[in-house]
Amino acid sequence: MIRKNIVLINRELSWLSFNERVLQEAEDKTVPLIERLKFLGIYSSNRDEFFRVRVATLKRVVKHQKKAEELMGENPVRLLDKIQKAVIDQQNKFERIYQVIIKELEKKNVSILNEKQLNSAQGTFVKVYFREKVMPSLFPIMLDSSSPFPYLKDKSGYLIIRLGRNGSTKKSKFALIEVPTDAHSRFVVLPKEKEKNCIVLLDDVIRFCLEDVFPNFEHDYMEAYNIKLTRDAEIDMDNDLTKSFVEKISKGLKARKKGQPVRIVYDSAIPADMLDFIMKKIKLGKEDNPIPGGRYHNFKDFISFPKIGNAELSYQKTEPLKHPDLKDQPSIFKVIKKMDVMLTYPYQSYEHIIDFLREASIDPKVQSIKITLYRVAKNSNVVKALINAIKNGKQVTAIIELQARFDEEANIYWAGKLQEEGANIIYGVQGLKVHSKMFLISRKENGQINQYAHIGTGNFNGDTARIYTDHTILTADKKITEEVEKVFTFYSDNFKGGSYRHLLVSPFFMRKRLTQLINKEIQNAKANKPASIILKLNNLVDSEMIKKLYEASSEGVKIKLIIRGICSLVAGVKGLSDNIETISIVDKFLEHSRVFIFNNGGDEKYFISSADWMTRNLDHRSEVAVPIYDKKIQKQLKEIIDLLWADNTKARILGSKQDNEYRKSAGKVKIRSQEAIYNLFKNVKH
User: Fold this and answer.
1) Of 82, 99, 288, 626, which has the fewest CB atoms closer than 10 Å, so is most exposed?
2) d(CA 627, CA 559)
3) Which tens digit of pLDDT belongs to each residue from 329-352?
4) Is 454 among the residues known to form the active site?
């Protein structure tokens, strides 16, 4: 579509194209079979969030259709129709892929059985398991046409059950059972028979034992079908001035659980009369995105599919490597004082960060630690280190972003824990989300305060650091640490914005500085000097920055883009973007780091950042990009980017057709960038 003469791809449709790339991984025969199942789980989890957030937003703006079309450049009703068509097409592909994987697993002696496929011994095992484990967690609700339909929770799977009598004039009875995956694993591993490994899903355990659930009802047959409802996940904030921000978020979380339905997924084998009964009861129509699916929903559970069968069915585990400059060092402070250090996850160990915070927590010279927390691990060693620092007399200030979507409850919990121990807690900044990934340690050395900073692209989360690719810079360079201090001052006093020569800080300066850097490349191109830009991002959506990249391309600046997710820019349009190439890499690890490289007339400028190029990041969030001054680290970062760009195995070309064509290099050695990057670090001489 065209918006203000800028060629742009709609962000929602681009996101669906990204999730199609995840589906491609599930289809890829070179990916181990259990990992392919996990990619189906990731696809499903992604799609749930898409409906809970993006589709829910579109449904909200439909009532303001004309104004929405002016702002979006697209009719929201027509866009919802396009989304519905794309999602159903993908769902059909999803089901085909699942059936292929199931058949391939059977050849490898791993079978996913339904309740009708259990042999006598397996049936006996399932009956015992059900009575001892599952039955106490089941609370069936009987349904009838006159009573209100029970509330269906977001993200939960349900079985809708009919108890019928052949030849009877009495109406069938209906019941509803929530599949209790909060209390039990979705997957029940059956006793091994010779070489055969068998699994039955919890849904089918319940189906197999329905007679035990409804012993007092007269019936000749039972049938059970999966349904699942997705609800609007937006938090509506209370404007009551007497309530604290924490209270408002907590109340909003409760309201979210009862958000408006935005989608229902159902087993496509369900009889029409049962589906009509459900749709009428929950007051949904055809315009409300009913999605016909397969026998099972909530495929996100497949992310935790059991590791059974031969080792070849799963990815070989790659242990994170120790950083050569930090390995076996008694003090990380001494190393950072002498040199900057870049850590790259998950190839290198996140334990270095825990070690650094642990050292700081007991070091008598450390006086204070300031940190931003956006998403932390469930059992966070980062928070434990901060609590230990407080107990050892250090001042700890934590800026905790309560509006980190879907992590609000966890953040409220950790904020409470830190506050109980005596930490100074700052709940973000009014009107902004704090998305920067920083900590600052102040240490008294020889009578003066020296500071040590962490600036990164990923959250302080040891769990995601094993699957997300991210970069972290550890530095004692005063040019950087003094400006990091300014950012923390702004968090505690929002009237002190500060000025910055080195860091790129949003929402005040980052857009302007990035524009200046692009303009410099344009000037150099016009002067027939080398001019190029390399960007690695999760999402590229902001129309003004895209317009600037189009301008740069038109003037001859060579631009390479590595975009994991949404890309609204269209590469390769003659006269507009023919100097822009765009790829996307979806593989074993989630590409999450943001890297900006500008040629700058041969004196290249390097940045790593917490910010994508989206309007929300540049204008409505507190983000930080840090320059990389160390030549050795610049070289290493460039080697990583070069390997990503050379990928001819997992890289897809992002073009106007959104067809996710794999990038092939005939006759060349196969390069799978994530494996190559791990080997790069593995072969670093200590």
Assistant:
1) 99
2) 20
3) 999 999 999 999 999 999 999 999
4) no
Tokens (6 digits) for 144: 């009838």
Torsion, Cα 453 456 458 461, to 10 degrees, reads -20
Which domain CATH number covers 49? 3.30.1840.10
d(CA 336, CA 444): 15
Query: For 11-40, what is the mean pLDDT?
Result: 97
Separation between Cα atoms, residue 300 and residue 369, nearest integer Å: 37
- CA-CA distance, 611 to 604, in Å (whole number)? 20
Q: Are residues 397 and 297 in the same domain?
A: no
Q: Residue 51 has what DSSP assignment? A: I
DSSP SS3 for 358: helix
End-to-end alpha carbon distance in the chain: 52
- Sequence length of the chain is 686
For residue 627, is the peptide bond before it cis, meaning its omega torsion is within 30 degrees of 0?
A: no
As given in the structure block, the two tokens for residue 443 are 């240490």
In a domain, 355, yes or no: yes
Structure tokens at 531: 């001019």
In angstroms, the CA 437 to CA 439 distance is 7
Q: Which of 489, 386, 371 is nearest to 437 (CA)?
A: 371
Of 492, 519, 535, the position where a domain reaches its end is 492
Q: Take residue 377 and report the two structure tokens written for it.
A: 């691990």
Looking at the fold, whether 295 and 440 belong to one and the same domain comes out as no
HSE, CB side, 13 Å, CA atoms: give it for residue 3: 20
For 661, phi then psi, to 5°, come to: -65, 130
Mean pLDDT, the chain, whole residue set: 90
Q: What is the pLDDT of residue 111?
A: 96
Residue with token string 């009495």? 170
Amino acid at residue number 12: E
The residue range of the domain holding 391 is: 332-492
In this structure, what token pair is assigned to residue 557?
């600046």
536 in Cβ contact with 470 (< 8 Å): no
| Interatomic CA distance for residues 186 and 177, integer angstroms | 15
Q: Could you tell me which residues come within 8 angstroms of residue 361 by beta carbon, excluding any fewer than 6 positions away?
A: 369, 385, 386, 388, 389, 392, 394
pLDDT (tens digit per residue) in 58-72: 888 877 776 666 666
**366 and 309 fall within a common domain:** no
202, 230 Cβ separation under 8 angstroms? no
Q: How many domains does the chain have?
A: 3
Helix (H) or strand (E) holding 383: helix 381-391
User: For residue 323, is it within any domain?
Assistant: no
CA–CA distance, 480 with 484 (Å, rounded to integer):
6
- Residue at 655 is within a domain: yes
Which carries the bigger pLDDT value, residue 146 or residue 272?
272
Residue 183 to residue 615: CA distance in whole angstroms: 40
Q: What is the pLDDT confidence band of residue 290, given thresholds at 50, 70 and 90?
A: confident
Choose the catalytic residue: 435, 454, 471, 592: 435
Using CA atoms, how far apart are residues 461 and 30, in angstroms rounded to an integer? 30
- Measured between alpha carbons, how far is residue 14 from residues 3, 19, 564, 612 in Å? 16, 9, 11, 15
